[in-house]
Amino acid sequence: MKTIGVLFGGKSVEHEVSVITGVQVMENLSKDYCVVPIYVKKDGQWLGGESLKDFKSFKNQDFSQAYPVYFKAGIPSLFHLQRQKGGLLKGDQLVEEERKIDCIINALHGTNGEDGSMQGLLEQWSVAYTGCQVPGSVLGMDKVLMKERFSHCGIQQVAYTWFKARDWKENRDQVMEKIEKIGYPLMVKPSTLGSSIGISKVKEEKDLEAAVDLALSYDKKVVIEHAVDHLRELNISVLGANGSYDLSPIEEPKSINDLLTFDEKYIHSNNKAGGKTSGKGGRNIVVPEEKVLEAIHTMARSAMDAIDGAGVVRIDFMMEGDQVYLNEINTQPGSMAFYLWEEAGLSFKDLLDRIIDIAEEKKRERDQIIYSYESNLFQRSGFGSKL
């Protein structure tokens, strides 16, 4: 029986969203697996224990039955210290317990879990893990890098610019010139956040400063985009790796606002962990006309190739008239975008099986790479303590 660690929580403003995803994953994994919860608290501490499979532990913030866990680089196992009672002549002792991990399902969202940092840590751990690897995770999380990469690959996007906090403080006139070339209305976004956090739609210049300040409170880089009028948002999920991809049906989220808000995505859907939470607003599966469908499919595959993506992702598109623009790729979609795959006849359980298979294949690929070079440099050189 394979042991699957489910990693969720995290040091991120998307912590709660990740908890929902993690609990959903644990409830839907095949009974053929031994499931090990790994909860990352907001302070970065890792906890384990069976109580973490129950959403009530998080709702009540009761972690009394959980215990600290840790790993050792190069050993694909999870460790914790277990108190062992001693006899009459010997006191209690702490004994290290080890549990081998075959694969990690990464259910973290946002900073420190989706941005390549955790992926690098998992590679040092020498364990298979789901989702994109380090480069794809970095590109998928940082909107500036993502947009530059997609532009290089010829993928159609709306007009945009970006700047750093330092630029806004020291060279605001130059920044304003770049923004004015795009023209109002605008979307103002932190570069490295998801779930619509810190995003504003700006229709007039008088509202720009407050929107930029909000974005800069979450990040040190800001992306400014042309805001599409009469927007239609179309989302698709892609499953696979190495150029072999399956594409889900397409959804058109519905919003009562100018942009889909955090509350619409996660609160007003009136769902709960373990249920059918989609991580998006009102679900509405659509079949676009042939030309639009072909454009979305082509750009979705190109985007996955551009970041060397793996596992399951969600890609968001925007339509203005008959023009289709790629908005962004989400390499760690809420609830693993299972709701889109169910529409294609793939159950949540089977989706998780697929992403585990992909994770193990990517691990085999990494294991074939040579990481050392036998140069005998120490014996051949005359270097002392000073180089």
TrEMBL record:
GO BP annotation list: cell wall organization; peptidoglycan biosynthetic process; regulation of cell shape
Catalytic reaction equation(s): 2 D-alanine + ATP = D-alanyl-D-alanine + ADP + phosphate + H(+)
Keywords associated with the record: ATP-binding, Cell shape, Cell wall biogenesis/degradation, Cytoplasm, Ligase, Magnesium, Manganese, Metal-binding, Nucleotide-binding, Peptidoglycan synthesis
Residues where Mg(2+) 2 binds: 328, 330
GO molecular function terms listed in the Swiss-Prot or TrEMBL record: ATP binding; D-alanine-D-alanine ligase activity; metal ion binding
Highest rank taxon of the organism: Bacteria
One GO CC term, this protein: cytosol
Pathway annotation: Cell wall biogenesis; peptidoglycan biosynthesis; Glycan biosynthesis
Enzyme Commission code: 6.3.2.4
Top-tier EC class: ligase
Gene3D superfamilies per the UniProt record, alphabetical: 3.40.50.20, ATP-grasp fold, A domain, ATP-grasp fold, B domain
Main location: cytoplasm
Location(s) in or outside the cell: Cytoplasm
Cofactor note: Binds 2 magnesium or manganese ions per subunit.
UniProt: Mg(2+) 1 binding residues: 316, 328
Pfam families linked to this entry: Dala_Dala_lig_C (PF07478), Dala_Dala_lig_N (PF01820)
Cofactors that this protein relies on: Mg(2+); Mn(2+)
Residues at the active site: 14, 195, 335
InterPro entries xref list: ATP-grasp, ATP_grasp_subdomain_1, D-Ala_lig_Van_CS, D_ala_D_ala, Dala_Dala_lig_C, Dala_Dala_lig_N, PreATP-grasp_dom_sf
Start and end residues of each ATP-grasp domain: 147-357
Keyword Magnesium applies: yes
Free-text function comment from the UniProt entry: Cell wall formation.
Entry's family note: Belongs to the D-alanine--D-alanine ligase family.
PANTHER family xref list: D-ALANINE--D-ALANINE LIGASE, D-ALANINE--D-ALANINE LIGASE A
Protein's name according to its UniProt entry: D-alanine--D-alanine ligase
Organism the protein comes from: Urinicoccus massiliensis
Native organism taxonomy: Bacteria, Bacillati, Bacillota, Tissierellia, Tissierellales
